[in-house]
Amino acid sequence: MCAVGAHMMWGFFPLYWHLLDYVPSATLTAYRVIWSFLLLMTLSIAMPRLRRALLQLREPRKLAIYAATATMIGINWGAFMYAVGSGQVLQASLGYYINPLLNVLLGVVVLGERLKPFQWIAVGFAAVGVAVMVMMGSGMPWIALAMASAFAVYGLLKKKATLPPLEGLSIETGLLFPAALAFLLLQSPDPGAQPYSPVTWLLLIIGGALTIAPLALFATAAKRVTLTTIGILQYVGPTLQWFVGVVLLGEAFGGSKLIGFLFVWTGVTVFIVGGLQMQSRATRQARQVALAE
């Protein structure tokens, strides 16, 4: 339930941030960073481990790693906010669909891992899907690629960052906090802009809470749910985002977008089925070894 709840929250995120579409995406990203950090610091009063996490920044190596992860999550959040604010939620959905495939590809390029044949096929289908969108007139899905690439690099860097999710997010938002605050203080005021209403401020504060809540749920689930289940559930979020974009927000979905998504969905299906088969074989082999002993 925690895992499903986390992915459902991520899936319906565009619908929430759409309520604030009158706030520029860069400003919205800055407020998301600020309120997430302030709420995490408030939580640290009752959770000493969050306070202790900040002490990790005294070690230069960990500071460098978390500075890099903070940069990547900042790019991901910024691209996501831009996607929602510009009415391109489908690009956000596409980004999270291809992210797991980019993860395995990054493992080959950076870590020297070997992909299974089904993984190469899955990556190939996703690549064809993106190429179809480009060649048939939809243009390069830069937002989706920025989101997926930043999050893939974020996941790679997280292998070197050993802190739990909330502690890690405390450090990352803490590192982004000065830049976000400076951006808000130094931006030129719009003479015709109206001051934010109490409802807007409330929505911005809740946005910080909604950033933290699914991570807490996911951290709880990750300790109790198999990696196979987690791997399948990661597609709940982009599927719901697709639903929000097409059904609830009325984005156009046809022609090259439809064909491109069909290729990506085929790649995702190959990726999931192949992973389940590989996990099943590993389980059978483990049982055979246990019986032999």
From TrEMBL:
Q: What are its GO cellular component terms?
A: plasma membrane
| Family of the protein in this entry | Belongs to the EamA transporter family.
Q: Where is the EamA domain?
A: 3-134, 142-271
| Chain segments annotated as transmembrane | 22-43, 63-82, 94-111, 118-136, 142-157, 169-187, 199-220, 232-253, 259-278
Question: Where does the protein end up?
Answer: Cell membrane
| InterPro entries linked to this entry | EamA_dom, EmrE-like, RarD
Q: What is this protein called?
A: EamA-like transporter family protein
Taxonomic lineage of the native organism: Bacteria, Pseudomonadati, Planctomycetota, Planctomycetia, Pirellulales
Task: Give the bilayer topology.
Answer: Multi-pass membrane protein
Which keywords describe this protein according to UniProt? Cell membrane, Membrane, Transmembrane, Transmembrane helix, Transport
Q: Which domain of life is it from?
A: Bacteria
